[in-house]
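User: Structure with fe (ii) ion, C-alpha cells only please.
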Amino acid sequence: MNRLVLLAASIATAAHAQTVLVKPYVQPGDGPALTGKDVKVLTWVTDQKPGNFTVEFGWAGEKNKTATPARTSLDFLKYVPKPKPEAAKPKTDAPGTPTTTPATPAIPSAPATPKAQPAKSADTTPQKPAAVEAKPADASASTLKIPADLATPRPTFADVALTLDDLRDKVVETFKPIPEREQHYFRYRAVLPELPFDTEVSYRVRLGATVIREGTFKTRASAGKPIRFIAVGDLGSNRPEQFTNAYQMSLQKPDFLVALGDITYPGGRALQYMNHFWPCYNDVAKPGPKTGAPLMASIPFYPIIGNHDADMQRLPDYSDAYSAFYWFSVPKNGPGPGPWNTPLGKDAALAAAFKNAAGSEYPAASDYSFDYGPAHFLVIDSNSYATKEIDRIAAWMEQDLTSSKQPWKFVCTHQPFFQASKEHYTEQRLRLFEPMFERCGVNVVFAGHVHNYQRSLPLKFTPNPPKRDPRGRVNGDYVLDRTFDGINDTTPEGIIHIVTGAGGAKPYSTPFEKAAEFLKKEHGANYVSFTAKYVADKNSFSVVEITPTTFDLRQITADGKEVDHFRITKP
Ligand SMILES: [Fe+2]
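Assistant:
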C-alpha cells in the first residue's frame, strides 16, 4: 500500500470518528474438551458507526494470521418505569413485576441530558457513579416477621419466587441509578480458531490504521500441565473494593477466571455493564487499587449466570436485560434449550430480538463444561427458574461428569447449597444432587451469591427425606471429615464446598459465631456445623493452582492478604 492510499484511509477513519466503547477482550469460545485445537474469541463494542476493523494473531514459530470480525447490532429501548395500575391502593410486590413507588422509583426516568454515558473514546473510562447500599437485615432476627422495609414496596428492583425466608434474609442493596437512555451498539466478535494448546498467542486489533488493542493470552493448558485460575463471584457492584480486588487479581497472573455469577449489579443489563463492569475489568488505562485492571485483555472469563444476571431485571420490562448472553462466548456442550433456561418473557418481538443478538450463547452460557489442564469444570445455572426444572438436566450433568477422566472435577454454580450465613441460607435445592456429585468424583464445588468466603469440611451428604421442606431446606445425614486440615492431612473424604462471593458486592459480614447462633435457633437440625473457614468482613477472591496431583487454594483479600490456604493431594 503506498503512502497516498494510507493517508486516504486514515482520513476516512478520522471522518467517521468511530467510538470504541469496550476494547477487545478475550473470551473462552467453544472449547470444551482438550481435543483437537483450542479456540478463543475476541469481542468489542462500538457505537453504530461502521468501522474498518482488522484482527491479526500469531504465536512463536507461526506466521501471523488474520480473523474477520462479525458485527451484530444491539438496540435497546429506553427503560421507563410502568405507572402503577392502581396508585391509590399500594400493595406488596408481585413476583416478576418491577417495583416502583412514587417516592423512590426503581429506575427513574432519564433527565433530558443524561450525565453518565459510556466512554466517548477508546481511551476514556466511563463515569462510575458511586454505589449506595443499605445495611444487611439484622442477624439477630429469629422469627418469620417480614422487616418493615420489605413489607412495603421495595425501593430497588423486583425479585422472583420470594419465600418468607427470602424476604427476611434479603439484603437490600440500592445503587445510584444510571440515567436511562436508548442504547445502540455494534458488537464485534472475531473467532481465533486452530490454536495450539499450551501456547502464548499475541493479537492486535486495528481500526483503520490505529491499533485499538494489542495483547497476549494463553491457550488452554493440556491435561498434564499446571494451571492457575481465579474463582470469584458477585463482581460488578461499583463499590471501591471491586476495583481493589480486580487489581489484586491481576497481580496473581491467572490463566483464566471463573466468574461465579452476579457478574453485574443490579440486574445484568447492558447499561450496567457499561457503568459497573467494563470500567473495572477491561477498559482501564492505568491499573491500580482505585482503577482496577484490564484483566480481560488477556484472561478469559468463564461466566456463570447468577440471579442478578438473569433473575432480577428481566425481559420484557428491560429490553437490555440478560446482557451476559451478548458479551460472553462459551463452550456449546450444554443440555440445549428447555424449561430450565432463562425465560424470555411474553413479548415475542423482544424475545426474538434477544435470541437473534445472543445467537448460540443463549442458552449455552447457562450450562456447559470445559477442560483446562488437569481439571474438568461443570457450570450449572441454579437460579430460581432453573432449579424448578433442574431434575430434567440431571442426566446431562451426570453424563458430563462421568465421561470426564480428568483427575480433578469441579462444579461451579452461583447459589451455594452448603453455607453458613443467614443470607440465602434456605436455598438448598442442589443438596439433592450431592450424592450424584460424590458418585461422579467431584472434588470441590465453587459458588458465589453469598458475599463472603466459606470453606466447608469435606462432607458426604444423603438427603433425608430426599425433598425440600416448605421453606426450601433439604435435611439429611452428614459424614464430615474432621481430620482433613489441608496442611497435614491433605486427602479429604468427601466434597469441599467453597463460597467465594466477595468479589465486589458488600460483604455479608455477620461474624461466624453470631450467624451460627442464628441458624441453630432458626433452622434447628437443618443447621450442621460443617464450616472449616469463614472470612466475612472483607472482599476477597480465590486463587487456585492445580497440577495432576495437587490442588492449592489461597484466599486473598482486597488488601492483598492471604486469609486461607489449603491443599488437596492425590496419590
Ligand atoms: Fe446472587
